[in-house]
Each structure stands twice: as C-alpha cells, then as structure tokens.
Amino acid sequence: KGHQPLEGRHVLITAGPTWEAIDPVRYIANRSSGKQGFAIAAAAAALGAKVSLVAGPVALKTPKGVDRIDVESAADMSQAVKDAMPADVAIMVAAVADWRPKEYRDEKMKKRGSAPPALVLTENPDILTNVGASDKRPTLVVGFAAETEDVLENAKRKRKRKAADWIIANDVSGDVMGGDENRVHIVSDEGVESLEQMPKIEVAMALLERIADKLTMPEAA
Ligand code: C5P
C-alpha cells in the first residue's frame, strides 16, 4: 500500500461521556453516545495514524487499528490523556462532566426521612484546556462545542478561552445526540467552514482530511 496521509502521526482522541460517581450505584453524567468520537478514531486509523482513543463508558466496538483506553470519570480521563501524550494531534470529543460530587460515599445512600440529600459538587479538570496549555502541546489541538443556541459565537469564544486551534461546533438542538448524522462548523483562525449535514463517519473523514492537510503545510511541525 502507498503512503497514507497520517502515517507516522499520533492522534489522541477522547470520546463518550464521563461518569462521576455519587455512591456505588449512582452517578451523574452528560448525554453522549460516543459515536462521533469513535468515527473520528476510525477515520484517523484509516488514514494511517497511530490512534489513542480514551473512551468514557459507551456501548461501541473499538474501531480497527485503534488503541483504546477505557475510563470512567473525568479525573481518570485526564490522567489517561496525560499518559498518552505526546501526540501530534489532540481531538477532544468527549462530553466531560463539568462537575463531580465533592464527596464519594462508600455505601449506598439511603432514602430515609423526608429531605433528599444535598449534592455538593466541585469542578472537574478541563482536559482540552490542559492539553492546549501543556508543555508537550500537540501541533494541532481540536475541541468540540455542542451548543443549542448562538452556536458560532459560543464556538469562537471557546476557541480563544481554551487555547484550541480549531473548535468543531455542532448544533445539538435537533436529534444529533445519539443519532448517526451531524452538522458541524469548523472554527479556526482562518474563519468558519460549515459542512453539510452528513453521517458522522463522513464528518470524521472530512475533518481528518483537513487535519492531514494542515499537518503537511510548510509552517506546521
Ligand atoms: O466548555 P465545553 O464543555 O462546552 O467544551 C467542550 C470541549 O471541551 C470539548 O472538546 C470537550 O471534550 C472539552 N472538555 C474537556 N474537559 C472538560 C470539559 C470539556 O476536555 N472538563
């Protein structure tokens, strides 16, 4: 087989939700099927990359040629991402829970009395921001922004705030969550490129082709 566009490149991807345990039987989480992240991992492998896929709890098969690291919480995901570095490209697709319960109860909390327990939350690490600020920063850092309103404005702000090179904005006000299609806008320092709605695997291929082009441009490492 001939030369592949991402041959010799390490692509690090997060996908799926995180689960933040309250007690042995309960957790809080974000809604995420992991489908878009897994499609991106499959596309990166198909283009010849070495792929590390850090996956939260999802019911999906590991794509061919992908090195999968299963995690549950945001803290575990953060550590797994650090362990998998360095990488040429980071694509953070996971729907990481912003907060976790401040305290984990070793025993199942009981329904007793009248008042439900107060859940005290604390902030999780922002994995995308930490990768962008890392001294081993990948050449290209890509984040996702799932928004229900002001999709592009929020994505542009997020790109700056999180020190990401690209933010892939997707409008999740429709039935994107758990569905097989997605409509995305690629927000970079060059502006916005809006793609048609298409299957998630085609979104993944379109994105990875652009990433391969970017990496082979003269000013890239
Ligand atoms: O701020 P928001 O959660 O919308 O940002 C989404 C982007 O940031 C996604 O790329 C997501 O994977 C990443 N993220 C992260 N760690 C967090 C929260 C979000 O990596 N704790």
TrEMBL record:
Binding site for CTP: D98, K108, P125, D126, I127, L128, F144, K158, K162
Keywords, alphabetical: Decarboxylase, Flavoprotein, FMN, Ligase, Lyase, Magnesium, Metal-binding, Multifunctional enzyme
Sequence ranges assigned to domain DNA/pantothenate metabolism flavoprotein C-terminal in this UniProt record: 6-213
Gene Ontology cellular-component annotations: phosphopantothenoylcysteine decarboxylase complex
A Gene Ontology BP annotation from the UniProt entry: pantothenate catabolic process
GO molecular function (one): FMN binding
Superkingdom of this protein's organism: Bacteria
Keyword Disulfide bond: no
Chain residue ranges for the region called Phosphopantothenate--cysteine ligase: 11-221
Family the UniProt entry places it in: In the C-terminal section; belongs to the PPC synthetase family.
Function: Catalyzes two sequential steps in the biosynthesis of coenzyme A. In the first step cysteine is conjugated to 4'-phosphopantothenate to form 4-phosphopantothenoylcysteine. In the second step the latter compound is decarboxylated to form 4'-phosphopantotheine.
UniProt protein name: Coenzyme A biosynthesis bifunctional protein CoaBC
Organism name: Altererythrobacter lutimaris
